[in-house]
Amino acid sequence: MIRILITLAIFFSNAQLIAQPKLVPDVSQRQISIQSGFTGAELLLFGAIVDSQRSKNKDTIDVVVVLRGPTNPIILREKKKVAGIWINADSNNFQSVPGFYAIASSRKISDIVDVKTAAIYELGIDRLQLSPTGSIDSKKLRHFVNGLVDNRQRGGLFRDNPDGVVISEGVLYRARLNIPSSVPVGDYTAETLLIQSGKVIAADDNVKISIKKIGFEAFITTLADKYSLYYGLIAVLISILFGLAAGYIFQRL
What is the spatial distance between Cα 182 and Cα 213, in angstroms, rounded to a whole number? Predict the structure, then answer.
């Protein structure tokens, strides 16, 4: 009798494991190269939902795709005009600001999950955990957060597309994300969430994407970052040479 009970327990346990949905995501390209004339790129994030036990009569499923990276601390300064001159006024530090954040979903996030779940998974630009530091009242902090978000959105670095994910037959999904020309270089993570009845039932963040400069742009960046003294001297030398060349041309005219 005990052996039968143990066998049944193992059977039902394995059945639950089999029924657990799984995401199999991929991306059209895992490396984006920035060189002269780069005007942006388009990423296709796609995949499959592996769950042979899920019935078609169950609640509608939703898929959310988030691409982010790289995260760095920044200091946000507010400028004010004093006596006709723009000067730096208040400032605030943020410890974890993604250089790029794009979210695409099959529906509006507010229609998919509640506020608590959206905050836990940082679903939405207004749910990003930017980790502000320093003593500042909530109203002033909200002012700085809104300014930071607005600045990134106008630059195309924070994007939200509530109809950006297409699900086919409840099995395949795809999302297209536009990468602007101003995108920062670094390592990016594409996270995919499978949501049903307001709950995240599967997630995958194993898709990594690298954005880097190549060619002459990479040489200039490396020179400026690692050999700043030589970079400055070369810049001054080039300015002098151009100045001499311009003076010579004007003398000949």
Answer: 12
> Pairing relation of β-strands 199-213 and 172-179?
unpaired
Contact 148/94 with Cβ under 8 angstroms? Answer: yes
* Distance in angstroms (rounded) separating the CA atoms of residues 41 and 109: 25
Could you give the CA distance from residue 200 to residue 87 in angstroms, rounded to a whole number? Answer: 47
AA identity, residue 217: E
Give residue-wise pLDDT tens across range 151-163. Answer: 999 999 999 999 9
Rounded alpha-carbon distances, angstroms, from residue 162 to 91, 106, 165, 216, 245: 32, 6, 8, 38, 54
Strands (E), 51-154: 61-82, 85-105, 132-133
DSSP 128-165: ----EES---HHHHHHHHHHHHHHHHHTTSEEEETT-E
Homologous superfamily (CATH) of 21-213 is: Macroglobulin (MG2) domain (2.60.40.1930)
Residues 6 or more apart whose CB falls under 8 angstroms from that of 188 comprise 67, 68, 69, 70, 100, 208, 209, 210, 211
Identity of residue 13: S
Q: How far apart are CA 49 and CA 53, in angstroms?
A: 11
Cα–Cα distance, 101 to 160 (Å, whole number): 8
179 closest CA partner among 28, 77, 62, 26: 28
What residue has token string 């795809």?
174
| DSSP-derived 3-state class of residue 218 | helix
pLDDT tens digit sequence for 84-99: 677 767 778 889 999 9
CB 66 within 8 A of CB 190: yes
pLDDT tens digits along 175-191? 999 999 999 999 999 99
Task: Note if the pTM is more than 0.90.
Answer: no
